[in-house]
Design a protein that fits this description.
By secondary structure, the chain is an alpha/beta fold. It has a single domain, classed as Glutaredoxin (3-Layer(aba) Sandwich), CATH 3.40.30.10. The protein is 41% helix and 20% strand. The protein has six helices and seven strands; from the N terminus they run H-E-E-H-E-H-E-H-E-H-E-E-H. Strands 2-1-5-4-3-6-7 form a seven-stranded mixed beta sheet. Strand 6 and strand 7 form a beta hairpin. Helix 3 crosses helix 6. The radius of gyration is 20 Å and the shape is elongated. The N and C termini lie far apart (60 Å). 32% of the residues are buried.
Length: 174
């Protein structure tokens, strides 16, 4: 075999192998958003059913889990119970809020009647809040400290263990 071809092949392949090896063990859903470490974009959205306005400013003073979801999203259905149980378990320490993306209020009400609710579901008319947060698909969850700064973001459905891990990190950031 030609030594020059072998050396050229190794020069091309070894950096790729090193790049892949560095990413082993990283969770592909833990997304490094440009918003992490910055103040969360403000919002004031109407809750489903109760018609109350909930704003980010009203959440300050206590850490928050802000989950973007939709009734038509299958992974959101799987995650809903995890978030509801999380809201019950961590509700004394952390506020949970669901921002419903690209959906109709009737469908949301039907979904919540069927699957239950442990935290406010807010309607994101026109998707403006999702755009401000850079949401590319649902579900996506933002973990926001008591001062309104985004501590982390997770794209995809959360498992109970992942939710607990992110909430612990959120509480430790205080």
């Amino acid at each position: 075999m030609n030594k020059k071809v072998l050396i050229a092949g190794l020069v091309l392949v070894l950096p790729l192998i090193a790049l892949f090896a560095m990413s082993f063990g990283n969770d592909p859903h833990s997304v490094r958003s440009p918003l992490v470490g910055r103040q969360a974009p403000p919002f004031a959205l109407t809750s489903v059913g109760e018609k109350q306005t909930v704003s980010l400013d009203a959440l300050k003073g206590k850490p928050a889990v802000v989950n973007f979801w939709a009734t038509w999203c299958q992974p959101c259905k799987m995650e809903h119970g995890v978030l509801t149980r999380g809201a019950n378990a961590f509700g004394e320490q952390v506020q949970f809020v669901g921002v419903v993306y690209d959906d109709k209020e009737e469908a949301i009400t039907e979904f919540l009647d069927r699957y239950g609710s442990g935290y406010p579901a807010l309607i994101d008319e026109g998707g403006k809040t999702a755009i401000a947060y850079g949401v590319t698909g649902v579900p996506e969850t933002f973990f926001i400290d008591a001062n309104g700064k985004i501590v982390s973001k997770y794209a995809g459905p959360l498992s109970p263990d992942l939710l607990a891990k992110h909430v612990r990190e959120l509480l430790e950031a205080q």
